[in-house]
Specification:
This protein is mostly helical. It has a domain of about 120 residues. The chain has six helices and two strands; from the N terminus they run H-E-E-H-H-H-H-H. It has a two-stranded antiparallel ribbon. It is flat.
């Protein structure tokens, strides 16, 4: 372990912090000795990308409200503004504290280092949805459309979960062709046993 750092070798499952945001990497934890059943560290891509989108949308909303308030235009009540600020400090601040320091590290990094930061991003989604539903859509038609989109989003979460479930929990043993179909990205290291 002490000499590995000095050599120009890289661990098979190491990754860079930029790979984490786009879910470009996976880690194989377990492979059944006789079948193709396996457990992979892979999250739900819909949640992963929704968390990234929530961070981006929150940042745009925050900057928009901040610029409008500098011009003495107050779009939302003071209590909602303070809640939005606290949400950003807790969740985007938590993401930054748990993610950005990895760019300064010179050690071997793995996908699981990103999980605390991802948790902060995921926790940003519900307050952002609530804020959008309460303050951005004034008419009932827009609120109902947004609610319908949330139902579609929730359904896509479930469908993606069911699709990736066999390699997340190691059950059941799949054929090599079925395993290949679960590889959404070429960089995912889904193990396929040669027969």
């Amino acid at each position: 372990m002490l000499t590995l750092r000095t050599e120009n070798t890289e661990h098979k499952y190491s990754s860079s912090p930029l790979d984490w945001i786009t879910m470009d990497t996976s880690i194989a934890y377990w492979l059944h000795p006789r079948t193709t059943a396996q457990i992979q560290l892979l999250g739900n891509p819909v949640i992963w990308y929704s968390a990234n989108a929530a961070s981006l949308i929150y940042s745009v909303l925050f900057i928009f409200y901040l610029l409008r308030q500098r011009r003495a235009v107050y779009d939302i009540p003071t209590g909602s503004w303070l809640t939005l600020c606290l949400t950003g400090v807790l969740f985007l601040g938590g993401w930054a504290v748990n993610y950005l320091p990895f760019f300064l590290m010179e050690k071997t990094l793995f996908l699981y280092h990103y999980l605390p930061a991802l948790t902060c991003q995921i926790l940003l989604i519900p307050p952002l949805i609530e804020h959008i539903h309460q303050h951005l859509f004034r008419s009932e038609a827009l609120k109902n459309t947004f609610s319908a989109l949330l139902l579609v989003w929730g359904f896509s979460l479930y469908v993606t979960y069911r699709r990736i479930c066999p390699i997340t929990y190691g059950d059941p043993a799949l054929s090599p062709a079925e395993l290949q179909s679960l590889r959404w990205k070429d960089s995912w290291d889904i193990l396929i046993r040669k027969q």
